Amino acid sequence: MIGESYQMELRHLRYFLAVAQHCHFRNAAEELLVSQPTLSQQIKDLERELGIPLFERVGRRARLTQAGETYRDYAQRALDVLEEGQSVLNEFDDLLRGRLTAGVVQTVNAYLIPKVVARFASEHPEVNLKVEELSAGEIENRVLGGSLDVGVSFTPTTRREFDVEKLFEEQLVLVLHPDHPVAKRKRIRVSQLSNERFCLLDRSFCTRRLVEECFRSGEATLNVAVEMNSVEGIIATLEAGGPPSILPRLAVTSSTILKSVELQAPTPARTICVLRSKGHAPIRARDVFVDQLKHQVAET
């Protein structure tokens, strides 16, 4: 029970959340840039203050107890609120400073975000920018939960809880090695691809689900030969002569080898948006980041 001797500090919460994320004291210590004995002692101090174990030690692993699972949500919310408060105070300073956390879906992160991050970091060195590559569902949950200041994702299924700003319409195309028989065509109907074998992102990606819906609508059979979990991996596989893929058009712009062919009947496409939670506190760093993102879209 927490009493008069209560001495918990913010670092205890940060250390606790790091161990909870990694389920491993050594890995968490490396991220936090502290020694493992120091981290272990801080967690023991926190458990003593709270009067209950937060972790079960299983060999070198650390697993949250039921109490730890419950406490994690409160610890994360506490840090999120404090960081939001710091961001609001930073608005009183003419110099752009503070911390900004953005979540980006992989297909956009692969080809659009690097130039935005490079420019932002160069022009605003006092801002600690963290970009996380996440699924669309994770981005929506964390924008609403407050652990992300901004998300770059697809149009959410429910718009009522978000401020949604459209960035651009993303079209998916057939991507092939130049030696492929179809590579010289400008466009092809989806129904003509039933005999083709593809290298695609796995089903955890919205891109894959959009491709499957496209083939259903086009009354074509989708044959998957290879599944991968990164756009970069698929592009490298295609450049090495692997089976064709279906990817966002802009994802192919970095390759000097591959060819893209427009898909028709139907043409798979989706809207890329900036997501903020409704009623969010004003953060100038976020506004500048979004402005630079829109500028990069216009130049692409």
UniProtKB/TrEMBL annotation:
Gene3D superfamilies: 3.40.190.290, Winged helix-like DNA-binding domain superfamily/Winged helix DNA-binding domain (1.10.10.10). Residues 8-65 form the HTH lysR-type domain. The keyword DNA-binding applies. GO terms for molecular function: DNA binding; DNA-binding transcription factor activity. It comes from the Bacteria. Keywords: DNA-binding, Transcription, Transcription regulation. It holds the Pfam family LysR_substrate. One of its GO terms (cellular component) is cytosol. InterPro entries: HTH-type_LysR_regulators, LysR_HTH_N, LysR_subst-bd, WH-like_DNA-bd_sf, WH_DNA-bd_sf. Belongs to the LysR transcriptional regulatory family. PANTHER family: HTH-TYPE TRANSCRIPTIONAL REGULATOR YBHD. This is HTH-type transcriptional regulator CynR. It comes from Thalassoglobus neptunius. The gene is cynR_2.
